[in-house]
Design brief:
Layout lengths: L3 E5 L5 H7 L7 E6 L2 E6 L4 H4 L8 E4 L5 H6 L8 H13 L3 E4 L5 H9 L3 E4 L1 H9 L3 H27 L1 E2 L5 E3 L2 E2 L2 H14 L2 E2 L4 E4 L20 E5 L2 E2 L8 E5 L6 H20 L7 H11 L23 E3 L6 E5 L11 E4 L2 E4 L3 E4 L2 E6 L2 E4 L11
Parallel strand pairs: 3-4, 5-6
Antiparallel strand pairs: 1-2, 2-3, 7-8, 8-9, 10-13, 11-12, 12-14, 15-16, 15-17, 17-20, 18-19, 20-21
Helix pairs in contact: 1-6, 7-8, 9-10
Length: about 375
Amino acid sequence: MTTFLLYDDALRSPEMRHEIGEPIMDPLVFLEHDGKRLIVGSDFEKPIFEKREDVVDEFWNIHDLGFEELMRDRSLPEHLIGPELLRRALERLGAVKAVVPGSFQVLVADYLRDRGIELVVDEEAWSFRRRRKTPWEIEGIERAQRAAETAMLTGARMLREAAPTPTGTLRFEGEILTAEMIREAMVAELLSQGCDSEDILVHSGDACLAGHDPGTGPILPNASCIIDCFPRDRRTGTFADMTRTFVPGTPSEELKKLHAHCRAALDIALNAIRPGENGVHGRVVEYFHEQGLPTREHHDGPGALREGFTHSLGHGVGLQVHEKPWVGRRPDPLEEGDVIAIEPGLYFRGVGGVRLEDTVLVTAEGAEFFTEPYPYDLAP
């Protein structure tokens, strides 16, 4: 009989949020034992879970496990009261062994192990549980996706309405258009849609090679502008992830070719997605290689590849913006119900970069979009 154990709050721990479905700020105990799901909490949490029969079979109150007695016992440090209540819950269940995630607190683990509880760290088991998205997670991802598209419209409008200046920049509503201005406007739009994100990536020109840097400074005319938006639905804590590339002005022939290759690569990947598949990244790598474009798999020079297809094709999306399954050089076989982001990109100094990204649901029939995909045009 396997016992799954969590001890954390649901704001910090994606595992806990997935299991209980509520943004509880204080540490709770979650146990799955003998087919039953159990939560140990206080009077503050009890009314919440009395209404959540979909996530819990039993609720145990910490007062029934001796919380007041422990508070009066000055021989036990206050920071060990929670671990002791957890030990008592395990004792009541008759569980002497439990499976925990890699994020399980060391202090709590040491306390339990010193008292004869065997803890098995199994990150794969917990990752697999989270890959099985709940209905409320799917709803949250769809809301986040719609918010991302609305925010993307805001960024695209600013690029479209900006006018070139004699100094080689763009002016929007009387100010030099910058990555910071676009990010600020998009963040405000996300908030109005019930989502948030302080880290929208906005890159222009050679800054498109900057990776996860958020992007700063002026947006350049006739240069590629990559906008990567990964909002969090505030109601559920779930994410979506999308990227589009725009050119405010006239794109170069080189940028047009990069865009066409990324668009073709996205189609190759989306058409290959199905349960059991683990070669989606490899298919895109081979396509780029056949077109004479650099990839990490074919790079034999010193250090990391800096130009071409320099990153993995994709990743899982859920209560974290980057989570399993990985769609890269060490891919996880896809499972029905996975939510993944696919993001082929090409980057060259002096030319700029192009990246296109969509978040999709893996179904028995293939990839399913959460919404009608946002247009892929270079024109904003």
